[in-house]
Amino acid sequence: MSLALEEYTGEESQLAADKNLFGKYEVGKLLGYGAFAKVYHGWDIESQQSVAIKAINKHRIIKVGLTKHIKREISAMRRLRHPNIVRLHEVLANQKKIYFVLEYAKGGELFSKVSRSRFSEVLSRRYFQQLISAIGYCHSRGVYHRDLKPENLLLDENWNLKVTDFGLSWVTEQVKSDELLHTMCGTPAYVAPEILAKKGYDGAKVDIWSCGIILYVLNAGYLPFNDPNLMVMYRKIYKGEFRVPRWTSPELKHFLSRLLDTNPHTRITVQEILSHPWFKIGYKEARVSFSHFEMKYDVGRSGNLNAFDIISFSSGYNLGGLFEEQDDGEMFLSAVEPQVIIERVAEVAAAERLTVVMRKEWCVQIDGGHYCNFTLTMEIKRLTDELVVVDVRWKEKSESEPGLEMWKDKIRPELSSLIYQPAGSVTSS
């Protein structure tokens, strides 16, 4: 047995043996797996609703440098609430894994259906309409999928389409100053020609190209651009060399030519798709009700956190973000009540001749004044019934003032007794 397979089998056995995820979800059978994640069928223990649980190996993705993909997937799916997009209910985490609790699509992959036989033009149009409804919504929220293919399209129990897997997605805040994307991405047979040109591309236009490939596959039962030699296939894509099957209607043929236009500037847009005669037949725009698609949050207590605010449950100080330290602060877990933490910070500040300028139940701010020209803010948020997260931020008023040194050398050592250490962990010296 290979080392990778042994590691995979061990992880699967560990999760299967546990069967219970944070006391909230029951873990069922394995649905599928990739290099860095496995997806299980599960149940919400309280509601008994079926869910899909995507378990991601945190250490493995750090090792290969894929942390940005996970951050991006969370960032994208937080924005999206649409009936044709798989819903992200919740994110949970421990020291080794990140768990996405997702809507369970009972019908499986669209790919498994179209791989058996092509769809009728009527059925192809129905799924393409649902796809465009979802992708148009994504684009309106500043999210570009960039890896659209039948394997990333699921079906629910009513055979409605659900877009999933936003691991290669991109959001508008991450676009370069020229408003073009520059990262090679996607699956070879579905990649747009402008990506191959490596000159930057519009994420929306790339998604439209992939939608055109998907529509072709639904209607034909095979890919428009395909060749065992990858470079030959890329040349076909770049030149737009494809033929439609003989059973394709003239209206669909024209529509496909607009979708698979190799020039992104003249390629059809979402708005033009919505008004195209072939597309409009029987189309009903999906109604998005935010009350039906609310994400789970821990509510009801002041200062609460959910797993989107803090994913890492490491011991000690370094809990910043998903995986890395913060430039202007530190975070740590504590099992001490917030008022006790605030009181201790005030005592340390007084001992170091610092001034407490603001003090509340969940927050305290201290100022060095003339003695040490910096400010430090400490905010406390509830993570679980037993644990809180202490978020420490500092701001130096002058580069020459030793504010950071004051925190690290004077204040932080006096708070060491407040730091939570998980059972069996070793405190670093």
UniProtKB/TrEMBL annotation:
Keyword Nucleotide-binding in record: yes
Protein function: CIPK serine-threonine protein kinases interact with CBL proteins. Binding of a CBL protein to the regulatory NAF domain of CIPK protein lead to the activation of the kinase in a calcium-dependent manner.
Residue ranges constituting the NAF domain according to the UniProt record: 300-324
EC id: 2.7.11.1
Domain (Protein kinase) ranges: 25-279
SMART domains registered for this protein in UniProt: S_TKc
Family indicated by similarity: Belongs to the protein kinase superfamily. CAMK Ser/Thr protein kinase family. SNF1 subfamily.
Gene3D superfamilies, per database record: Kinase associated domain 1, KA1 (3.30.310.80), Transferase(Phosphotransferase) domain 1 (1.10.510.10)
Matching InterPro entries: Kinase-like_dom_sf, NAF/FISL_domain, NAF_dom, Prot_kinase_dom, Protein_kinase_ATP_BS, Ser/Thr_kinase_AS
GO molecular function, one term: protein serine/threonine kinase activity
One GO term of the biological process aspect: signal transduction
Pfam families: NAF, Pkinase
Alphabetically ordered keywords of this record: ATP-binding, Kinase, Manganese, Nucleotide-binding, Serine/threonine-protein kinase, Transferase
Protein name stated in the entry: non-specific serine/threonine protein kinase
